[in-house]
Amino acid sequence: MTLLIGLVVLACAVWVLFDSYKKGARNPAGWAVFVAVIWFIALPYYLYKRNKLEPAEQQPAASNRWIGLVAVVVLVGGFTFNTMNKEALPACDTPEVVEVLSKLLNGMVIANPAQRPESEDFGAVRLCNATVAERIQPYRVSWYSNDKVQFIVHLE
Does the model's pTM come out above 0.85? Predict the structure, then answer.
């Protein structure tokens, strides 16, 4: 869902960038960044002001458009990536997961924790395997609650 929202915001900001450039607005990159930052307010405002934009005395430089494009892509892409990483479950081999697994197994040595191939990277559950006392121990990592702050490790 986060990726979809990020793509919609990015598409709107890029459209505003090129549309305002075509209309001869004074600062197309500013409009695009404005839309990228507060999309739900800035896009309706831009649509309202779109036909009332006063053309700049001279056409903005083409570099303004490309600088704006890079700024918007970095801004929206970085925010979307950061948000997706916060929503993602910890990987099977992260220190936090290995620590919980070690406590569940009474301090036994855990080697080679890895995600099973059938497990999804951004799903609600990670299916994992680790070597414990020379045998493979399957386990899964899932969210403890819907707020996605705490995770839980289940031995299988």
Answer: no
Contact predicate 97/90, CB 8 Å: yes
| 96-to-40, 102, 116 alpha-carbon distances in Å | 37, 10, 18
Are 16 and 38 spatial neighbours (Cβ–Cβ below 8 Å)? no
Residue 81 host element (H or E): helix 62-87
One pLDDT digit (tens) per residue for the chain, 156 residues = 667 788 888 888 888 888 888 887 778 888 888 888 888 898 999 899 888 877 766 666 666 667 777 787 887 777 777 665 556 778 888 899 989 988 898 888 888 888 887 766 556 788 899 998 889 999 998 888 777 778 889 888
